[in-house]
Amino acid sequence: MFNLRKSAISAVFMSILVGLSVGCSQRPSDDTLTKDIQKKVATDSDTKNSQVNVVAKDGKVTLSGQVSDPQAQHKAEEIAREEPGVSGVDDQTTIQNEAANAPPPVEVPKPEPIIVPAGTVLTIRTGQALGSKTSQAGQPFLGTLAQPVSIGGRSAFPSGSTVNGTVVTAKAKGKIKGEGQLDLSLTSISVGGHTYKIHTAVLSSTVKGKGKRTAATTGGGAAGGALIGGLAGGGAGAAIGAGVGAAAGFVGGALTGNKQIEVPAESVLSFTLSHPLTLPPPEK
After folding, report:
1. Residue 85 pLDDT greater than 50, yes or no
2. Do β-strands 261-263 and 254-255 pair in parallel, antiparallel, or remain unpaired?
């Protein structure tokens, strides 16, 4: 009796092992799952126009790539889930139309530099007195821009910008003979914390004979310059060039009793750019 019972138990155990073995052998491989699902996706009417990649590992299927629309995405996942032997589906596909319908990025135009052309007039106010007798060639001087400069509606040089200049020539008038001469030019301008080198025509004023005075712009430009106010017995005067917006002439200064050329502090002078200047776009 014992032997019969033992034999029955052994038979049941063997049946279980055989069933498990058969079940495992009937489960498709990952490679088979991949090929079958890929084929069904490629032939299904809803998904055949989609680019779906299939990868199976230990029965779990991962879908990637792009599908044509949400319906195709849903159908591809359904095909994978219904495949015998699949234990799970990870759908990583994206919809093509969502990317295609997205509005294009708005391109913000890059601001262009400001080009200040040659011939632009810079009207400045001197920060110190200058004279044919009191100044020396090579002496620097300071001033501020008396009038703003705009190019194409954009501000290039705001009023109050600091300018640097140099005395090109300073020669005192002799008591008996010899003419007095005072030549000035600008060398730089400071805007927005940056200093730019500039080139201007030389403003020249001479005096000779019996107090005869001439004024001219050298290095290009027109002759002249109109003296609106001047020294009278050593008093202060104001001056500004004629024809602002055209070629500027030498302005400022007058003859003292001993026929010297003097430009008082706070005199207004007009200089003409002889070379263009490129400024970076203004910061917003």
Report:
1. yes
2. antiparallel
